[in-house]
DNA sequence: CCCTGATTCGC
DNA sequence: GCGAATCAGG
């Protein structure tokens, strides 16, 4: 039978399906299992699927010269002693769970109750003291109260907010009619 | 700090 | 052909 780790027809087809579906490499890797995101990307490139739905004449990352500078990898000492890093590479493909978000939109719940805490767990809420550059700076509550907190979620570099709040704050007025229900006014 | 894909290169 | 390592951008 097909062994895990081998790219069988089914795996390749599923890979193409998920890739064309817009799923990220890590998600596909998590769904396939036994493979890492790198493996998925590698296979994708090998198949010639790279680029997904991007403009063929619009390379986001035009590596003009990038001489790859000799990485000079040392295969002699892949792991000297102990990696001492995370106890288990819980990163990348393994970090993402093979779960899907159907994103249900309860229209019956149009309550204007701006309770962001419903989407942001308390554990992530931080004060300005614990705020980091990579943390979401979405304001919560009144800044005049001592209970004022920030989202504290994971934000991208350069982004003041996390992915969730970034979409809320950066909603184009044209598409704003969608309304996220509990989005509310900050 | 997190994530993404792209590429190289040893196996 | 495969995939880890690395790079580069967000």
UniProtKB/TrEMBL annotation:
Pfam families recorded: GcrA (PF07750)
Superkingdom as given in the UniProt entry: Bacteria
Region (Disordered): 50-117
Biased composition, class Polar residues, residue ranges: 73-85
Name of protein: GcrA cell cycle regulator
Phylogenetic classification of the source organism: Bacteria, Pseudomonadati, Pseudomonadota, Alphaproteobacteria, Hyphomicrobiales
